[in-house]
Recover the amino acids of this structure.
């Protein structure tokens, strides 16, 4: 790494992409890079773009006990630079939904189930914002890459735990009181973290 020079700004681009996989009731973790074609097929989370059943175009797993499968996760890229003798990351993170890996069984397309699956996607977005918030508030050393990866790892574990708790407490949308409480919690948290 070059010596720090006060007459120039050291700017080091580090491109990282991390992906979290679907959360319905069973969870798997993989870390991989999507190529441009694959990434273009995903839907990026947006408050004005809710999921529809047409988005669930993947091959149905007929052996699964689930009626639907939501394949969503978080991606990010970042660079870092010196600012006033401090290391600062420039993070771009987003949550996504992959239609080709998401599916719905025939005859199960109810509004209630779709709303439940949307909240799985919303939980991914919520953790994307938690990740951005923590990256923004952290004090970095020259181990910035490992530090950001560590923050991501913690947020991932928290996301996993929340996705499991969400399904348990809503009984996969069948517990209406539980679903209502989760809807309110997720909405409140997304509003609180709106700047991210």
């Amino acid at each position: 790494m070059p010596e720090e020079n006060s007459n120039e700004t050291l700017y080091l681009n580090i491109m990282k992409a991390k992906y979290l996989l679907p959360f319905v009731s069973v969870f798997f973790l993989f870390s991989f890079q999507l190529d441009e074609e694959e990434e273009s097929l995903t839907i990026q989370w947006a408050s004005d773009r809710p999921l529809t059943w047409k988005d669930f175009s993947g091959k149905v797993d007929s052996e699964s006990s689930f009626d639907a499968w939501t394949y969503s996760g978080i991606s990010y890229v970042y660079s870092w630079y010196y600012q006033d003798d401090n290391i600062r990351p420039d993070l771009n993170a987003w949550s996504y939904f992959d239609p080709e890996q998401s599916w719905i069984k025939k005859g199960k397309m109810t509004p209630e189930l779709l709303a439940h699956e949307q909240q799985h996607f919303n939980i991914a977005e919520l953790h994307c914002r938690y990740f951005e918030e923590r990256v923004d508030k952290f004090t970095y050393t020259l181990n910035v890459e490992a530090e950001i990866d560590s923050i991501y790892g913690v947020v991932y574990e928290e996301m996993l735990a929340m996705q499991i708790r969400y399904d348990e407490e809503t009984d996969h949308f069948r517990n209406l009181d539980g679903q209502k409480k989760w809807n309110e919690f997720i909405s409140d948290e997304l509003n609180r973290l709106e700047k991210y």
In short: The longest strand covers residues 72-83. The chain has one domain: 14-192. The helical segments are 36-40, 111-137, 144-170, 176-192. Strands lie at 11-14, 43-44, 68-69, 72-83, 86-97, 103-104.
